[in-house]
Fold:
Amino acid sequence: MQAIEVTDAQSWDRSLLALPNPHVLQSWTWGDFKSRHGWSVTRLLFQEAGQTVAAASVLERRVPRLPLSILYVPKGPALDWADADRLGAVLEELERLARRRRALFLKIDPDVYYPGDVPTLSSRPALAPRVTTLLGERGWRLSDDQIQFRNTVLLDLDRSEDELLAAMKQKTRYNVRLARRRGVAVRRGDTSDLETLYRLYAETSQRDGFLIRPQDYYLDVWGSFLREGKPDDALAAADPLLADVAGETVAGLVLFRFGPTAWYMYGASSDRHRKHMPNQLIQWEAIRRAREAGCTLYDLWGAPDNLDESDPMWGVVRFKLGLGGKLAQGMGAWDF
Structure:
């Protein structure tokens, strides 16, 4: 196997999209964004007999005052995880890179799942038991630092709108229709709306008790994908959606799209006008937009390890499951 570094955005994204289950965190735009926030990026295509069989966008951060670094392949590498021989060869190349870069550790956290009731994963067999065994044999270990959510909620978009509505919980479906009757309006935003989105996100952070980064970080990531992507573009793109009630913006989300998948990574809402159910309608419009853009899977990004009502995320995951999604248990982050 040969590893080739790629320095051209179009070549990278097109090659990545040709591989199984490409992730937006492996896209050129994501690596470019992270390079402005303390990381450098190396993009590697792995080839066999002249054919690209895997890809890894590797982020690197230097350790202050030491000739060492840490390496991270967010939601990657991209390859056919069912092919054990190929997986072993890709891991070997990444391990060599970690040694050359004098890395304290190399982290991966691909979307590889355990068996479960997730019908949306017909193209993603439950490979986590086999893959984690192989990783353990090579000296990798389950990480103490899970950067991304280990589990998520997935929604199959390869259905009609009527079928998607029918798959929702009855209360969620009722609230979508209630929001429409009460005059909630959902619109696609532009760069002029990003500061409003951040204000809502900061309000959500304070209300729900989670930490967020400074405003410039979010304006950069949202704006990068918004500027790069077009509604009909197959490459990485973002749609900021905002819900207005009586002319006031009270909820928002940023829908990321890359290839066959859409992701809901950032959502925000105000305490005002919650009785009009803007959050349910904005999610329905996100589902419709993702489906119209050709996506077949909606990743609702984040679920607790266990469905337990005592978990702080219980309300969030109940909301996501109400949209008709299914819980998917991932193998999590592993360190070499």
The chain has a mean pLDDT of 93. Residues 82 and 130 are 9 Å apart (CA to CA). The longest helix spans residues 84-100. The two ends are 20 Å apart (CA to CA).
